[in-house]
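Researcher: Next entry in the queue.
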Amino acid sequence: MDDCAVVTPRNTSSAGGGREEVLRVPKYSTTSAIDRSRKVWYRAVALRWSTLSDFDKVKVPRQGASVLQKPKSPETFDAERSALAKWIVAAMHASDLGDMEFNELALAVFRHQLRWNVTYARFVQSQGGEAVRHWTGIPAVSTDVFKWESVPVVCGSAEAAPHRFRTSGTTGELRGTHFFHSLDVYEASIEIAWRRLGLPQLPMYAVTLAPEDWPESSLGHMVGVLQRMLPEGGGCFIQKDGQLRADSLWNSLHSLPANQPVLVLGTALAFLNWFEQMDTGSGPPLTLPPGSAVMETGGYKGTGRGLAKSALYQLFESHLGVPTDRIINEYSMTELSSQFYSEGIGRAHRGPSWARARVIDPETRAEVSVGERGYVEIVDLANVDSVLAIQTRDLAVRREGGYFELIGRDPAALPRGCSRAADELIRNAQ
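Model: Structure for this entry, 430 residues:
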């Protein structure tokens, strides 16, 4: 990728026949440069979006009225979606979003979704939430709505959306589907957040399937994005049939130069399976080069297995020689387009400035006080093609600064997750 994000905010001719004004927004720049350029690109891109969408005039019909009327053509949707996506990606590149900027963008995405996502518009109407003035008031949907096959939660047409990720599911359990018209915002969110949050810029060894063998997995796609952006080296070490190439993985890591730190990424259950194979003869424990890191994701719900986080992290130290403060937990889900990260044990998760998390009382939806427990609710601007406000069934403690300390899945919730899918695949192959 080059050093600038190209944004085409508007046509400079009022008659529509003039040249396009192209703004080149620095991806990585000094604060002063960002401050000088922000007003120019932000005003221009926002004007382009508001002109196309006319979003201030979009309203949900009152109870009993017909369903929200769509604009006339797919071309109109494509133009609106493209302009909104450019605005979001430009904001990601330019700087951390402040409260005012985040609120402005969140309301723009919300109104776009009211205009084009009929399923969500009906839900908002039922909640009486069409007169939202602040992002905290945007009605959030449960992750369960992504399982509604007859009424897909997507802007525009589901048939016209070429990309989709699906949640894991056992036989007889409904699987959720997240539709995307383009992966431009999704991939930008992964790449820019990785750099902004200071995550490891190291060759990656993934205890996962290769992205092409896992086409409906959001985690699989994330692995593919990281493979493109991180230094060369490593690879994916679970075969398409679910077999872990334990010997190949061990040999690759064992042969690393002492001055070459690496990132080892996988689901919690895939790591647990690998460590069990180590213990039964697939290779003695390793000591990765200094500066190496581990990233684990997923949990154990619905698998019949379980291990406390502290015990799992002890296994990372005893089997890979990686200290606790170099172990990263990635928190996300198929229904989101952004990720949150924490390092070590007892530390809060943090995410990019375009994804805001609140810990709420599930009965009142009011944010709990700092130090109290509740459900994690996330407003993710990168969820442009579906619904930006997602209510999870994950429990957390609210921390200062918009951070949260994850406790785990609500015991009453249905099991889900990439970690379980990987575990089932590996076990079926054994």
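Model: Confidence is low (pLDDT under 50) at residues 1-39, 53-68, 415-430.
Researcher: Noted, moving on.
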